[in-house]
Write a structure and sequence with these properties.
- By secondary structure, the chain is α+β, with helices and mostly antiparallel strands.
- It is 47% helix and 19% strand.
- It has two domains: 9-172, Orthogonal Bundle (YacF-like), CATH 1.10.3900.10; 177-250, YacF-like domains (YacF-like, Sandwich).
- The protein is built from eight helices and eight strands.
- α1 packs across α8 (160-175).
Length: 251
């Protein structure tokens, strides 16, 4: 099964992009080669670029408060474990405390490092981090793997408060939905959304063996999914088959 996630608003879109970048960063830092650590550093700069929105921290804190209020609404329900509620609420409060201690935009502390910023200025230019461009960076790439990993962990540390908060918020968002199996009609599926609920993300699981690609369009009124297949001419066309996939709407 291949999972596709589609955000309904720009805030969740940013969350998903940052989550993907943090996952990539974690994978690259664990490796030992200099080239992997080069791309780990490039990923740190991507995280800083995506997280440069002035209201990112404010949005996350608002979502934490919203989740705490929603969870507190379950207190007293005999079907809900109070211990589980306390645990999740405690994690949310810890994330909020960590975020409030951060100053400036995401990666603000790293912007004070002239050496890092010199690399950042050139790393997006094709081939511009060669040894004659950045000799100090070239020398760093010849340090031991353990030394480079230690440096990378230090640079990542100021970003981890946001990573942990996003991990928790997106986990709660994903768990808010219930999966349902749906079927397309001539490759197209559409569903009107109830106006009393404010969905934030759609999750779609599709069997890889079908060889189909979903073309998704969503807003607060309707979900539309068109399943596309690649023809022999290399172009994508709407599938004419009635295919089944799994759909989850997360509020």
């Amino acid at each position: 099964m291949i999972l596709y996630e589609y955000p309904f608003n720009e805030r969740v879109r940013t969350y998903l992009r940052l989550e993907q970048l943090f996952r990539r960063l974690g994978e690259l830092v664990r490796r030992d080669s200099a080239i992997d650590h080069h791309y780990a550093l490039a990923t740190i700069f991507e995280i800083m670029d995506v997280g440069a929105r002035a209201d990112l921290k404010s949005d996350i804190l608002k979502d934490i408060d919203r989740q705490k209020q929603a969870l507190n609404g379950f207190r007293g329900d005999p079907a809900i474990s109070e211990a589980a509620l306390d645990d999740i609420t405690g994690q949310l409060e810890a994330c909020a405390t960590g975020l409030k201690s951060l100053s400036g935009k995401l990666g603000h502390a790293l912007m004070q490092d002239d050496w890092l910023m010199a690399i950042r200025a050139r790393i997006t230019i094709p081939g511009a981090t060669f040894e004659f461009d950045l000799p100090a960076y070239h020398a760093w790439q010849h340090h031991s793997a353990a030394s480079r990993q230690h440096d990378l962990q230090g640079w990542i540390a100021p970003l981890m408060g946001v990573a942990q908060a996003l991990d928790l918020l997106l986990r709660l968002l994903r768990n808010s939905g219930t999966a349902q199996k749906v079927i397309t009609s001539g490759g197209l599926y559409q569903q009107m959304l109830p106006q009393e609920r404010h969905f934030q993300m759609m999750r779609l699981r599709l069997h890889a063996a079908l060889g189909l690609i979903p073309e998704i369009s969503c807003n607060h009124l309707m979900v539309s999914v068109r399943l596309m297949s690649r023809a022999s001419d290399g172009h994508f066309h709407t599938s004419t088959d009635n295919s089944t996939f799994e759909l989850t709407l997360c509020a």
